[in-house]
């Protein structure tokens, strides 16, 4: 019982700064998610239309390389280039999340039955009509699951962004390590998990709604 | 009317897919492109809505060169049914059928009425099916939707690429029948690709038989069956189908032995013979085998006292063994159950075996056709 009352005490004293950390965390994560979706999904679609296999291969290789760099190292590399704080964190996390979503979008677009595409063409769909009414809706389950997985990753990786001074729940965890404060570590972790679960739930709802045209 | 004039298609690697294709697809007819796989039939069909481009030649759509038309507008004017149905799985049946009218920005009310009308046309209840998804339908139902989707915007021309090949034989038969019925109602120009000769013979007004990128023969099913251009055509049609279309020689249809009576025997005797063998007519011959005439039981019974030769039935006309079976068929409207067959010197050879003839006719007119 001691632990619970102590923890309650901890919250009532620190809730204002905990909420600040959480808000920071969410701002970084959501910025990265939004940028990633808006850059990667169109890129993935564009790549399926690309005839040149070499360029396609090269783009995947680049995305792959970012993925293989350890997260902490990628964040560290940003410091000499962009300094510390919000911007380098967002850039690093964006580069890091490029591959999973790119790959899913690409796979989703590739999964559309070529016969369906031919049927659409033959019925007189223009390129963009076909993309928005046929191909994208059919690729949507792949794209959405890509977005969901990537979002959960990003929220968890954002914890590391605290290392280059971007703030967020990582700060809480790091401080907890410094002060050897279990409550801080636990709170930082559990809140990051909760944001991830909550976002996954929202995106799941969105997916269901979007897949019904 | 769609005309393909001197069409050639050569791929970049030098492979010549189509060689000098000349076809006129007449309005309101079912035109079937047929041939073994890789013969260019689907390619030829896709030239028309510009899904495939040609290297040389000219295609006229109602007199207008299709290269001068906007491909998207052209495609919206032409219905398109593809091999594996190609319904959009993420759309309801309603939205699938309404696809082209929506692209053409028809009024909502008009689209709704049109979709309902089309569903009724293929006997699917709009209330039940409109809001279902393609995955909730059977193969035959899906293909019906595929067909009416192509009809939705009232195109004058419909392209169909092996639309029924994936169906079970029963559904296929049904849909072929429905297509023929629909064609009578709506009178479209249909260009239909298949590799199934039975299907082609059943539905086609014009058959275009292709091989290795060129046309081997074109004509009505009748013409192709009667005059196959070469051995390839014969082989492709199949000996079985060809055989059935040709009437057997008359010699094969003669029934011997037969009951007869001599011209000097009594009428009483002739009646006895007929009753004994349970026949209603009996041919009368001279001793040397010459045919005299035919007497029927009714006349014989009511004129027992008269000579046989006075009772000959003038309506029984004998046929000659060298007559063609086709000609014999034409004369058969007299409806007699006995038709004597004579040799050229008027000797009686036998009787026309009508049971056998009907059997042959039955086979030819589809008793067994159409079922694989």
Automatic annotation (TrEMBL), chain A:
For whether the record's keyword set contains Transmembrane, the answer is yes
Q: Which SUPFAM superfamilies match?
A: MetI-like
Q: Mark the transmembrane ranges.
A: 26-46, 58-79, 85-102, 152-177, 183-203
Q: Which Pfam families match?
A: BPD_transp_1 (PF00528)
- According to Swiss-Prot or TrEMBL, what is its membrane topology? Multi-pass membrane protein
UniProt KW Membrane keyword: yes
Please state the protein's primary subcellular location.
membrane
Return the CDD domains for the record: TM_PBP2
Q: Which UniProt keywords apply?
A: Membrane, Transmembrane, Transmembrane helix, Transport
Where's the ABC transmembrane type-1 domain? Answer: 22-203
Q: Where in the cell is it found?
A: Cell membrane; Membrane
PANTHER family from the UniProt entry: GLYCINE BETAINE/L-PROLINE TRANSPORT SYSTEM PERMEASE PROTEIN PROW, OSMOPROTECTANT IMPORT PERMEASE PROTEIN OSMW
Which family does the record assign?
Belongs to the binding-protein-dependent transport system permease family.
Record-given protein name: Osmoprotectant transport system permease protein
């Amino acid at each position: 019982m001691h632990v619970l009352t102590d923890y309650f005490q901890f919250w009532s004293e620190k809730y204002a700064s905990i909420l600040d950390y959480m808000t920071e965390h969410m701002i970084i994560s959501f910025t990265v998610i939004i940028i990633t979706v808006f850059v990667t999904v169109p890129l993935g679609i564009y790549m399926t239309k690309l005839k040149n296999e070499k360029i396609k291969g090269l783009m995947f290789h680049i995305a792959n390389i970012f993925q293989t760099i350890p997260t902490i190292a990628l964040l560290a590399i940003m410091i000499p280039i962009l300094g510390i704080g919000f911007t380098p964190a967002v850039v690093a996390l964006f580069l890091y999340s490029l591959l999973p979503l790119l790959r899913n979008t690409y796979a989703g677009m590739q999964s559309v039955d070529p016969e369906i595409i031919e049927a659409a063409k033959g019925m007189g769909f223009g390129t963009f009509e076909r993309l928005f009414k046929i191909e994208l809706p059919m690729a949507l389950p792949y794209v959405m699951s890509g977005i969901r997985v990537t979002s959960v990753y990003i929220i968890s990786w954002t914890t590391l962004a605290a290392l280059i001074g971007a703030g967020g729940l990582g700060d809480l965890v790091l401080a907890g390590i410094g002060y050897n404060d279990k409550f801080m570590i636990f709170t930082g972790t559990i809140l990051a998990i909760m944001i991830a679960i909550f976002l996954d739930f929202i995106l799941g709802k969105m997916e269901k709604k979007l897949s019904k045209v | 009317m769609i005309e393909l004039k001197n069409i050639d298609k050569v791929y970049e690697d030098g492979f010549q897919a189509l060689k000098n294709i000349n076809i006129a697809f007449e309005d309101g007819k079912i035109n079937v492109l047929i041939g073994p796989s890789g013969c260019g039939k689907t390619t030829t069909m896709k030239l028309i809505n510009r899904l495939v481009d040609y290297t040389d030649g000219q295609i006229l759509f109602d007199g207008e060169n299709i290269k001068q038309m906007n491909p998207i507008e052209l495609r919206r004017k032409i219905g398109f049914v593809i091999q594996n149905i190609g319904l959009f799985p993420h759309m309801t049946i309603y939205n699938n059928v309404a696809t082209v009218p929506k692209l053409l920005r028809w009024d909502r009310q008009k689209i709704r009425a049109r979709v309902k009308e089309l569903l009724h046309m293929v006997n699917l209840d709009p209330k039940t099916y409109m809001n279902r998804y393609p995955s909730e339908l059977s193969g035959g139902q899906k293909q019906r939707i595929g067909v009416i989707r192509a009809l939705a915007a009232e195109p004058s021309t419909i392209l169909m690429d092996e639309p029924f090949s994936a169906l079970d034989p029963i559904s296929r038969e049904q849909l072929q029948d429905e297509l023929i019925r629909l064609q009578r109602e709506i009178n479209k120009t249909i260009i239909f690709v298949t590799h199934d000769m039975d299907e082609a013979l059943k539905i086609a007004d014009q058959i275009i038989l292709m091989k290795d990128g060129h046309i081997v023969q074109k004509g009505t099913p009748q013409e192709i069956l009667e005059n196959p251009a070469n051995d390839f055509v014969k082989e492709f049609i199949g000996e079985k189908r060809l055989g059935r279309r040709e009437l057997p020689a008359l010699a094969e249809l003669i029934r011997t032995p037969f009951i007869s009576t001599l011209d000097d025997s009594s009428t009483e005797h002739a009646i006895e013979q007929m009753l004994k063998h349970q026949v209603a007519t009996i041919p009368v011959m001279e001793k040397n085998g010459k045919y005299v005439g035919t007497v029927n039981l009714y006349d014989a019974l009511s004129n027992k006292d008269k000579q046989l030769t006075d009772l000959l039935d003038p309506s029984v006309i004998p046929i000659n063994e060298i007559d063609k079976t086709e000609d014999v068929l034409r004369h058969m409207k007299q409806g007699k159950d006995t038709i004597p067959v004579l040799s050229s010197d008027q000797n009686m050879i036998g009787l026309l075996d009508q049971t056998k003839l009907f059997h042959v006719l039955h086979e030819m007119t589809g008793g067994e056709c159409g079922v694989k």
